[in-house]
Amino acid sequence: MQLELPLQEKLLEIATLERNGDVGLQPEASEEAKELAKLRKKLGRTRDASASAQLAVDDMELEIRRIQEDERKLRRRLDDDRRQLGAATDPTTRKDLQHDLHSSQVRLQNLTSEMQEAHNEVHALRANRDLYRQQLGELEVEVEKAQRAADAVPLDTTVEDARGRVEKLKGELPADILAAYEERRSENGIGAAKFNGRSCGGCHIMLPVAEASRIRQAPATEVPECGECGSYLIRGRA
Ligand SMILES: [Zn+2]
Asked: Which of the two ends of the chain, N or C, has the fewest CB atoms closer than 10 A to its terminal CB?
């Protein structure tokens, strides 16, 4: 292959960029973006937990109101029983009233201990809910901070830059040279490589002395090939 020296440099740059794998890869997410995603997930979980904790409080408060309502009804019933007992003279009626009075008192006692339990429970549930609320508040601040940090990271344009650079360089090479390079690259995955005087930069094999010397002494505008891997060897200006 015959190629002007400046174009040889361009061919080497194309081959190097393409081999580095910078072309065609997705840019990796920044550490800041990963941290933000992690915190957002945590925020979502904490929000769910906080909502569940609030629901548990609501349920228990409803239960307390139910007990209070039952207590009110029972007290009214006790008052009624006592009032009727004060007036009743018939033994059977008095016996029924006393029986009802007694069972209502027992039920009221049960309700009182139920109420005590519900109060203890709602107290614990509210403490739990408050803890989640506090965590949620702290997390929201953290997420905001992480968002600002992620926004401050400049977009990674390395990949775009490399791709654009390769396209530009390819536009500057003669079509037949480019075709020869592409064909060689499709065969050995390298195409063109730097020759450092002894070994090929593509396969990294130390070439036999005679071959290395032949390559070194080839005319400057000639592009020799590696006897091992077939890559076009660019010798550079030195
Ligand atoms: Zn080679």
From this structure: C
Domain 5-25+157-234 has CATH 1.10.760.10: no
CA of 198 to the centre of ligand 1 (A): 11
Distance between Cα 223 and ligand 1 center (Å): 13
CA of 9 to the centre of ligand 1 (A): 17
As a whole number, mean pLDDT of residues 62-66 equals: 97
> How many whole angstroms from 174 Cα to the centroid of ligand 1?
23
Pair 63, 118: CB distance under 8 Å: yes
- Report the percent of the chain where pLDDT is more than 90: 86
DSSP string, 72-94: HHHHHHHHHHHHHHHH---HHHH
In whole angstroms, how large is the CA radius of gyration of the chain? Answer: 43
Task: Compute, in angstroms, the gap from residue 162 CA to the centroid of ligand 1.
Answer: 24
- The structural domains of the chain, with segments of one domain joined by +, span 5-25+157-234, 31-152
Q: What is the dihedral of CA 187, 190, 195, 199, to 10 degrees?
A: -80
Cα of 154 vs centre of ligand 1, distance in Å, is 39
Q: How far apart are CA 108 and CA 114, in angstroms?
A: 10
User: What's the gap in Å between 145 CA and the centre of ligand 1?
Assistant: 51
Q: What is the mean pLDDT of residues 205-227?
A: 95
Tell me what the mean pLDDT of segment 128-150 comes to.
Answer: 96
For the chain, the average pLDDT equals 93
Model confidence at 24: pLDDT above 70: no
